[in-house]
Amino acid sequence: MKIKQFNLWMKLTLLVFLSILLSLSFVYFQMNKEMSRSIREKQESDLLKIGHSLANDPTVRAALKSETSTSKIKQLAKNNEQAFGLDFVVIMTLDKTRLTHPNSDKIYKKFQGGDEHKAISKGQETVSTASGTLGQSLRAFVPVFNTDGEELGVISIGLTTTRLAENLTKARWNFSITLLLSIMISLLAALFTAFTLKKQMYDLEPKEIAILLEERNAMFENIHDAIIVTNQFSEISLVNASGQKLLAKLAHTIHPYGEKISTLIPDLKTFKNNNTQVTTDELYHQNGVDYLISVAPIVVRKKNVGQIIIIRDMTELSSLHDQLLNTTAYATSLQAQSHDFLNKLHVIYGLTDLQAYDQLHHYLEKILEPEQEFSSRMVYLIKNPLIAGFLIGERSRFVERKLPFMVEIYPDIPATTDQNIIQTWINIVRFIHSTILELESAKDLQIRIGYSQKKLSLTYSLPLTGSKLEQLKIKLQSNYFSNLIVDSKSHITLEPQTQWLIIHINTPYPIYIEED
Helix, strand, or coil here: 324? Predict the structure, then answer.
């Protein structure tokens, strides 16, 4: 793990360091180029200034006029060479005869180079680079005039290219020292930047970040609950697939991004009271459905940057809870029936053996009472344990309110392979029963259930008129119930009759066929 961290740190360091190094190198070479040009221009300017100074000296004019190399003019040339760091100061006549030279053997000999022509013939000052007796050098030529403006000769002042290179090297050395210091500082800055970036990524490698991101995305997209992520302004920034479906149902929108959560889900107390700094759980009711909404803040470096909202459909949880209770009731009923069956056989056999026919008659009437035989009928007539257990549980619900609950089953209901259809059908029946109990219209309720033509038929007959009938219609037109009808592909019809209402519901019911 440490090697991976070092590798990433090294990559970041090299990336930052190379970027800075390239920038510094470019600046260095540009400045070096500019410095070389500037030094040469300064040298040329200095040479011309020295030449002008000598051209105005009476000693120089006198020597050129007499065309004689005197000790005085030799000393003057030598003094200027030493004072200004020159390699040579050559004073020549118009016929190119040297009157001064660092090498005394060259005095009274012709000047070499060929670049002195303009200064001698035209009286123009020039600067050029050419080869002479001292090698290649930078040379300035300044004409000397008398008081009448007549040209007497030319002064050539110069530096060898070796001397120029030494001067340039000295100047470059300071820049090189600065460059080295900058590179060292850049390396430290690169190390610090890479370390900071590594810490910003929580010491994770790119591969680890990619794996972690894919794992989070897989969890986020495939979780059953609706998950919504908002920014610090409570605007939706991320929604999983379940969340998009839920928002399409609650807010009728398929593009929730950028919308405020309080706009899509109104009356949400957590956002209404601006209580988004702590984790909260809230029950929310809309369109006949209860939702549990959990809101938790997203904190990055002790700063709240948004919220994560998890929405659970409490109807589904309630359905699962009821399904568990119904299954338990079904299993308990089967256990009781198997135990009671033998006891009843023993009692019937004993009463028959004793020829106590009156007592036998009363006993048979007792065991065939609705309270005793309802569970048995559900078990024998309905081959689907979920439906049987649900109806047994619903009977207990009605009996607790001292209301009758009898169901006619014909023909028998076979088992099915589609559990989702059954659960949706159970939710439909539960909603209708809750509505009937709410309207207090269950006293003379009649229920018929049967299977025919691959459909599960359900018929309710109940005394219902006037305002209660209108209330029932409103309930059956709610979004929740309408979604149940659509999800199960059911068909519902209402037949109002005199003092009665008949409700027909037909639901597709694929049966389970056992293979031989």
Answer: helix
Region 224-314: CATH code = 3.30.450.20
Q: What is the pLDDT of residues 128-177, one digit of tens each?
A: 888 777 778 888 899 998 888 888 899 999 888 787 777 777 777 877 78
Q: Which two tokens stand for residue 317?
A: 């949880």
Instruction: State how far the Cα of 226 lies from the Cα of 376, in Å rounded to an integer.
Output: 41
**What CATH superfamily classification does 2-167 receive?**
PAS domain (3.30.450.20)
Q: Under CATH, what is the fold of the domain 369-508?
A: Heat Shock Protein 90 (3.30.565)
Q: In 72-149, at which residue ranges do the beta strands (DSSP E only) sit? A: 88-93, 126-132, 135-145
Q: What is the tens place of the pLDDT at every residue in 276-333?
A: 677 788 877 776 677 888 888 888 878 888 888 888 887 667 667 766 766 676 676 6
CA–chain centroid gap for 501, Å, is: 57
For 355-405, the DSSP string reads T-HHHHHHHHHHHTSHHHHHHHHHHHHB--HHHHHHHHHHHHHHHHTT---
Helix (H) or strand (E) holding 338: helix 314-353
